[in-house]
Design a protein that fits this description.
- By secondary structure, this protein is mostly helical.
């Protein structure tokens, strides 16, 4: 980024770092989809469903996220994979507000 205005260089760096974070979130959700296809799939989906229940009960998450994630979980591994590989406008917010944050810490 040599020769760029320092503010522009900082902005480009921040955008690049943000895209790296979204790529990591996509990988985490692809891992969740893979687990959901296996023997631990029921447990994984149940745990994610319980997290959504907590969001709803405590009103800590928008009803839109609760609704969207319930729809995704109904489709199981395919729903998770579809989300993780989509470029739709709503994907990044859902990846950030995900009931699968525990997957990377298993």
């Amino acid at each position: 980024m040599k020769g760029l205005d320092p503010r522009m260089a900082a902005r480009l760096k921040a955008l690049s770092e943000q895209e790296e974070r979204y790529a990591a979130l996509r990988r985490l959700h692809l891992e969740a989809a893979e687990v959901a296809r296996g023997a631990e799939g029921g447990e994984l989906l149940a745990r994610a469903g319980k997290q959504i229940d907590v969001w709803e009960a405590n009103r800590t998450c928008s009803r839109v996220y609760v609704w969207a994630w319930r729809r995704i979980l109904r489709d199981g591994a395919n729903g998770i994979q579809k989300l993780a590989t989509s470029d739709a406008w709503y994907v990044k917010p859902l990846l950030q507000n995900s009931p699968f944050g525990f997957v990377g810490r298993r």
